[in-house]
Amino acid sequence: MACWTPLPPAAAVPVFDRATLTRHWPRLHAGDAEPLPTGTELFAGWALYHAGQYQQATELGLQIGGAGITLANKAQAVYAHHLERSEQIKHALLVEVAARAEAQRAADPTLPNAAYLGAYALSRYVNAEGMAPGGTADVGSRVRADLEETLRLAPAHADAQLALGALHARVIEQLGSLLGRAQGVSKETSLALFRSALALNPSSPIARVEWAHALLTLEGEKKLADATRLYQEAAQLQPLDATEWLEVQVARAVLTD
Asked: What DSSP string runs through 234-249?
């Protein structure tokens, strides 16, 4: 595995030991509903992830196997989306995550984050390619089905609600409200999913960023003030780990454009 791009030096993130990670786990995993790990190695892997050492977390997760695959998939997908500079490598990393998640689901169909991380990786891949999930029938249908399956397995999975709300908004952007309704998507459902996701994970920067983007997609300039408020809230949040730090930077970048 080639050396991955590290976090920028400006990213001041804590080092988590078992006690601090256990204490902060409910907040850190309010989005993905991942259960607290039991094994020492898996704990160490998640500590690496939250400190932004995504390559080491991925490698350790793959070495552990089993529940470690979820760790590896999340670390690799987050790294690819936020930090990888090469588009070709980013695409390869996301496709690799999607394939591993599919195999993980085949081995155990009851894992919500196997379905979710497969959908997340594919969705980020499609976005990086400049396509809309709703406009690419095969991939879009798979992403939507995986997110809906995640919510069937874990109804309070805030990240899946967030991703599904964003997907509804992008489908409407591409097809319009009437054709979107024919495919079972709507503005009302999209906004309801964002509201629910933020209620479940109120400390999430990315929930605010995605909701703001969806408001502009669905409502345009008339929702600019609301979207700006959400971006500002995200930019002012105090990140608890490396991934939240990266998400806060996304909000700050939007506000400075």
From this structure: HHHS--SSHHHHHHHH
